[in-house]
Amino acid sequence: MARRPRRPAPRSERSATKPERGLSAEASDGSSAPRTFWTPARVWLVVAGLLLIHWGLAVNSLVRENPTVDEVVHLPAGITYWQKETFKLYHHNPPLIKLLAALPVVWAGPVMEPIYESTYWRGEFPNKAGIAHEFAEKNAATYFELFTTARLLMPTFSVLGGLIVFAWSRRVFGVEGGLTSLVLWAFCPNVLAHARLVTTDVGATALGVGATFLFWRYLQSPTWLRASAAGIALGLAELSKFSLILLYGLWPFLWLAHELCRRELEGLSSRVTRAAAQGVWMVVLSVLLIDLAYCFEGVGDRLGRFDFVSKMLTRPVEPPRAYVSSNNQLRDIARQHRVNRFRGTLLAGVPSPLPRHYLLGFDAQKIEAEAIPKRWKDPQAAEYETIGYPVYLDGQLRETGWWYYYFLALAYKVPEGTIALVLLSVAVCLCSRRARLPCGDEVCLWAVPIVVLAVMSFGTDIDLGLRYVLPIFPYIFISAGRVVLWSAGMASKGKRLVARCVVGSCLCATVLATLTIHPHYLAYFNWASGGAENGSEHLIDSNLDWGQDLVNLKRWIKEDPRREPIGIAYFGQINPNVFALRQEGLNWFLPPSLPGTMQQPVLGRHRAGPPEPGLYAVSASLVRGLPWRVYDSSRWAPYEAKRDAFGYFRELTPISKIGIGYSIFIYRVTSADTARLARYWDGVERGPS
């Protein structure tokens, strides 16, 4: 009978004198042994090659798409942090990623003084959308180039994430397991989609898994040096995204799981004492790093003085009170009905150990995740109804989310090859002891994905994009490395060959899917869901159409030999008039909106009737009815378009999606279409259902 190879033990459990499996040049008895294929030089050459390809794909993509909805605010905010030494603008996320992205742009000398003199900047809560538009107008000549400069730093985080994925997987599943995990990361279209952007998603994902990896290493050998490294990494992670606050609760749980799995009572008391002291040290280091990054702005402010609005940090107040506008609807309504829960208590005078805008930013993110009761605005509304972000799934647009949203988003937007490997790794983990890690190590791999999915699915209504669960990806990719051990453990050579072919085919399918959608990674949908061309039937917003293809639309128009005027309804925060300011004229106008859906009368070429025959370009999110700010060629400031303002385009068939990144649909409206759509303006119907 063929002898089954044993699973390599984690490096921490191996003898210091025993060479690592697959990298040995000498047998354990001192005799000469043939070298294996995976020498250290070859391993790191392959790792470097995979990460270089990953970086190249990201860079080649970022230069071919324009800034997305969130980026246009992130970058100006980062510039103000450097120049004004205050973190009040767009404090909805911690500042680390914005600071790093903005640094080379600050050196380039963007025009900022008119912004600091505008009304948008004044007050504690600046108008982030207004400042984003001002930044685009004042820096139009170099606008896209400034963002390219900032974006070029962003793939560094995904490269770091790839190194961590490989290092962790290699330690528990061997070299080939580590390379398998790295391929899944390097060729994940969702990682590549956000690795190019001046946003927090991939940076937080990489720093979060890096911090947890160092904590896992600490659990294996709890020294003060490793505790310090984990504490510093925790602070960096917390400076990237507020959702990583979950790590403060998860790490003690991971330590407890590790201790329970050890089942060693001897020395338990000393281990608990040491872990408590080192745990406090980690927290202290992380908080100190947060304070340093914020330049200690507002550290020590009394808790009772903060103007919190989220449910977590407030208590109800009756009757509703007056408020001062803060340019945020959710905040303004909440301030009438809630008050800081610390006011009037003993905690009101306690100084905050965290920066002012760290706490206010967390509060702002929390209220957007919670939403607010709709009856605060409409007394006739049902008690369970809330006001929040409009969210969309499978053709339905509403203001409350679905508990299964992220599970479907994963099913739609993860390549089939990756899904197959992840499901196979779960089955192997459950059924094969050889490929199963010690209990404590398995908990470290699965705790974050389970908790993140549970919190996002059942604790929030922010069903805006797969990017909100991106932090689970490195852990499931690491766990997928176990399929290599499974394939190597087959009883016969034939079965091992079949198993390796299965793993290799899945990896090839993932790579092929990613290369096929290049460079339009945001628009990736797997073949089973209908592909990118049918993506808007399932998901919109940052899953498909995040405003990234305005420059691609400009290229498409330039190549159109007819050069006719085109109606543009664009989901984004860049006014197409920016091309005129760059001396790149664009003959365009805003298409007519359905009656009652535009909050202000629109001037210029906007018509109050059915669309005239001609060419139209409409973002997928607006076709699906999302309310948003839209632009008219007659002015710079946007107009507010209500729900389904351009939903009538759903009745038409686009002539092109592919050429413009799948996120903007091109329509050729005929005279017959105009006559058919006229009923919406004649009072026969209110709008498409």
Characteristic key phrases:
47% helix; 689 residues; globular; 12 strands; disordered N terminus; two-stranded antiparallel ribbon; mainly alpha; 24 helices; 4-stranded mixed beta sheet
Explain what the structure shows.
Helices cover 47% and strands 6% of the residues. It has 689 residues and is mostly helical. Among the domains are: 65-151, no CATH class; 396-517; 541-680, no CATH class. A four-stranded mixed sheet has the order 8-7-9-12. Strands 1-2 form a two-stranded antiparallel ribbon.
Low-confidence stretches: 1-34
Radius of gyration: 27 Å
Strand order of the largest sheet: 8-7-9-12
Ends apart, CA distance between termini? 67 Å
| Backbone structural class | mainly alpha
Number of strands: 12
Query: Could you describe the largest sheet, including whether it forms a barrel?
Result: 4 strands, mixed
Instruction: State the shape.
Output: globular
Compute the number of helices. 24
- Strand content is 5-15%
| Helical content class | 40-55%
Mean pLDDT: 89
